[in-house]
Write a structure and sequence with these properties.
Radius of gyration: 26 Å
CATH class of the largest domain: Alpha Beta
Shape: elongated
Number of strands: 5
Number of helices: 7
CATH architecture of the largest domain: 2-Layer Sandwich
Number of domains: 2
Strand content: 5-15%
Helix content: 55-70%
Length: 189
Amino acid sequence: MYYKRIMRLAMLTLAGKMINDANKNKSKNKNHVNVADFLGVVEVKHSIKGRIRYHIPKLKGNNVLAEHIINQLSKVNMIGNVEANAITGTLLINYNYGEIDPSMITAAIVKLLNLENEIKKKKDSLVTRELSNVKEVLNLAIYNKTKGVLDIRAIYLITIIIFAIRGIRMAPKMLPNGYTMVRWAYKEI
C-alpha cells in the first residue's frame, strides 16, 4: 500500500514537472500579437504590432522556396519588408498592423508553401512516441529471446485466454466475465 502511494506521488510530481517545463518553453515564445501558429509547421517565434518572426522547418536549406515566399509576400501592399533565412528556416515580416490581420499573413504563408496537409497530419505527443519506442524495443527483445516463438501480442492473447478460462470456471459473475475476455482475444487474432 505504501509503495503505491509513493508511485502515485512520483507520477504526479513527474507530470507536474512536465507541464511546468512545457509552460516555461511557451513563455520563451513572445507572441504579443497572439497570432495562431502550428507547432512544427509554422511557428510564431516572436511578434509585436507590425512585425512577426516565423520558424518554418520547410524553409530550412531551401533557398528556392525562401525566394518564392519573399517574392509572393512582397507583392502585398500592406506588407513592408519580408526576409527569409534558408539557413535557420525563419521568415521575418514587417507589415502595417492596422491594415492587415496577422492571422491572414499566417494563412497566406500556409497556402503559399502548401502546408495544409502538414497541419492536418495527426501528431503524437512526445510521451506517446517514447512509449511506442519502449513497446517496440520490448517486443523485439521478447521475440529474440524466445527465438521467434512469442511477441507482446501473443503474450497478451495468451494472458487474456488464461484469465477468460479461469473466469468462466471459477468466477462466472466477475466483470469483465470470461466470455467477454474470449471475445477480446478473438478480436485481437
